[in-house]
Design brief:
Layout (H helix, E strand, L loop, with lengths): L14 E6 L10 H13 L3 E7 L12 H4 L4 E3 L3 H11 L14 H16 L9 H11 L7 E5 L3 H14 L3 E5 L14 H17 L2 E4 L2 H9 L8 E3 L26 E6 L13 H7 L2 H4 L3 E6 L4 H9 L5 E3 L5 H10 L2 E5 L11 H8 L3 E5 L5 H9 L2 E4 L4 H14 L11 H5 L3 H15 L17
Parallel strand pairs: 1-2, 1-4, 2-3, 4-5, 5-6, 6-7, 8-9, 8-11, 9-10, 11-12, 12-13
Amino acid sequence: MTGKGKITMETGKKLNVLIVIYGFPPYMVYGSVIRTIKYIKFLKDKVNFYVLTTPDPKHTKQSIFSNILSGIPVIYVEDSLRGAYHHSLNEISPAPPNTETKSSFYQRTLQNLKRLLVDILIPDRFFSWIRPALKACLTQWGSVPFDIVYSTFPEASAHYLGYRLSRKLKIPLVLDYRDLWTTNWRFKRKFFFINFINRCLEKRIISRASRVIFATPDARELYQREGLASPSQCELLYNGFDPDDIPPPKEDGEPPSGTSPELNIVYTGNIGSVNGSIRNPRCLLDAFATDDIRRLPLHLHFFGIVPPDVEKYIKDRGITDVHLHGRIARKEVFLRLEEADATLVLLGELEDPTEVPGKVYEYLGMKKYVFGLTEENSQLAKLVKEYGYGTVISSTDTDGIIKILREFAAGGKDCRDPNQVDDKFLDRFNRRQQATRLYEIFKETAPRPELKISSPPIKSRR
């Protein structure tokens, strides 16, 4: 279908939604992908989903979510730039600290090329995926009567591709801003004119969109305040948790979680470098290195990828109560959370204050105590405070971290009662309900049956 005649939704018919996303199972499974998969899971009986995506050569195939995605048509379009040399550039990393190396001219040139590419490519370094994906979609699915194009961030190229498809197919566009674009410091470029062009491009794409979905209230308010999106366009759909992921309550006679005298704090997901600006655990580790915390029955468990410098930092300081477990299967994550006495989430002072990591909603769904290491004005801090079953302190305040850990240990298990969590508060983060609202957005956005065009428009004679 290329716009010559448009078949729209009829009463009782399932919607046809084209999802544009950079990365999808079985190759890539990360935050925005899981968010999209959960929508598919709960809406498969109401919506025909089609997925336009790209494989990632550095990821191996995984069987996760294969049962949910069974029967979903997917077009995988290779990103020629990523496959040709972007991946090889990513493999070039700085030497470990305290080591003397002499970079070759070739290595320095590739590093500089990588930085230059990141700074000058529009809308991002994955732009080479856009044209072949557009052609593949129109060629293979040209006869499918799509009702909506739904694109999700990251990457910015997915939104631009969704915009192009929406114009080609002459159907509504729905943008999902799980992550922000030009307002996010991670996507700022070195050159002013590149940032200016990207901002203009983002405004044009949003102006085409029927709805713009944000993952947090602060993100929605930011885009309205910046004049990028109008209040009538904006919707709020939290990342949320899937109630089916939550283990059932233990039966009578089973020992409750955390019955040992030790107190276990669990962090799930990847952690940042002790020298970086993203999820930097340095002050947290410094707290566990003090005698005050060593004497307490506290254990911190990291389940996920940990940089080598973090491992070295722990070893050099003789920290014995911090345990690194590496990556584990998604199902096992919830088993580890079930055994935890508390959970941890970490956002550095330079990170996007409107962001709330997806893992937090899983912590809430499990009704676990939350240590939020973040700034007081962040969306995460507001969420933990409203949750009412956790505490917030800056990730750079070592003394403050020591204080809240001591208070947590001194209170013992008796001071932590998950029954104090308000179930009505948690309902707003239930992915099933979020999916229901997304379906309503689709219905409100899709062309109405009475506007159906049954035949191509007559061309005017000249």
